[in-house]
Amino acid sequence: MTAITPLAELREKIDALDAQMLDLLNQRAKCAQEVARTKMAQGEQGTFYRPDRESLVLRRIQELNQGPLPDETAIRFFREIMSACLALEKPLEVAFLGPEGTFTQQAAFKHFGHAVKTVPVATINEIFNAVETQLCPFGVVPVENSTEGVISHTLDRLLVSPLKICGEVEIRVHQNLLSLAENLADITTVYSHQQSLAQCRQWLDKHLPHAQRAAVNSNAEAARLAAANKGVAAIAGIAAAEVYQLPVIEKNIEDIANNTTRFIIVGQQISTSTGKDKTSLVVSTGNKPGALHRMLEPFATFGVDMVNIESRPSHQGLWDYVFFIDIQGHANDSAVAQALISLRDKVNMLKILGSYPKAVF
């Protein structure tokens, strides 16, 4: 029979381990401050945040982890440590689709950690403007949803913006009905972002067929409106319910259970290769026979995996389209570089939107 260790002894051991961890955390923080001073001395005056470096650190933690903590828990813990260490110099400012409590803010915290300063702006266009004018070094924007597809405003802005995609993050989206109303029958209007309204279309048809549906810039804005009117409801996340102190009338009303939104990080940094990267690009072929085949051929020739392709109007002419493409690998990787060189000769326009680390979790 295995001997049972007394609680007092176990608690004493935990206290000792906590003291050791605290000491090690502060040693790591001091080392991070040294890194900042060294970068300053070497003339690196920009942001100290490096998405490629952080991705490598988190993947190393995942490889080293032997449990019993799950990999995701260990990664989240170290993400927060890195976020706090970076904030010792200056909290990183990140623009997001506001107000407080949106899924975009949740994505910002998941990617950067909670020590960043999230800066709410009203529209996706304003997020790009905030980063382009250097009011914030980074911005977080939604780019596609597993249920409703691409976010057209984001793709259209990427087409003309000088910013680069620096990273990606995925959020499992649970939609909830929030309201001060006591009964569903009392709700006359449902506010939410147009994507969220679409993601809950079947539920709304069944349970609130009488209610008007009104699209607003964000789910958090919808929650703010619902908090001011008892006959109004919002579709939003739990974070918005907490911020605006709204009761959750119904949970998880999304029509598809694995509803997930992918967000991208936009900034002016160029990430180096980490070995597990994506490259995003936009291509224009012109309306010519065989153009699409010629565009795809270089990826097959050099063995580059294409993971996504979307077409959008180019706004340059009737029935003229551009293609947004995600491929595996970094633009500096040999196979990808050769494919891109070959591609340039086969298309009218090629713009590399960024090479960046794939989401770690």
TrEMBL record:
GO terms assigned for molecular function: chorismate mutase activity; prephenate dehydratase activity
Coiled coil (UniProt feature): none
The Prephenate dehydratase domain, residue ranges: 93-268
One term under GO cellular component: cytoplasm
PROSITE patterns registered for this protein in UniProt: ACT, CHORISMATE_MUT_2, PREPHENATE_DEHYDR_1, PREPHENATE_DEHYDR_3
Keyword Cytoplasm: yes
Cellular compartments annotated: Cytoplasm
Protein name: Bifunctional chorismate mutase/prephenate dehydratase
Domain of life: Bacteria
Keyword terms: Amino-acid biosynthesis, Aromatic amino acid biosynthesis, Cytoplasm, Isomerase, Lyase, Multifunctional enzyme, Phenylalanine biosynthesis
Domain named Chorismate mutase: residues: 1-93
Functional summary from the UniProt entry: Catalyzes the Claisen rearrangement of chorismate to prephenate and the decarboxylation/dehydration of prephenate to phenylpyruvate.
Domain ACT: 280-357
EC assignment: 4.2.1.51, 5.4.99.5
Keyword Cytoplasm: yes
Pathway the protein takes part in: Amino-acid biosynthesis; L-phenylalanine biosynthesis; phenylpyruvate from prephenate: step 1/1; Metabolic intermediate biosynthesis; prephenate biosynthesis; prephenate from chorismate: step 1/1
Site (described: Essential for prephenate dehydratase activity): 261
GO biological process: chorismate metabolic process; L-phenylalanine biosynthetic process
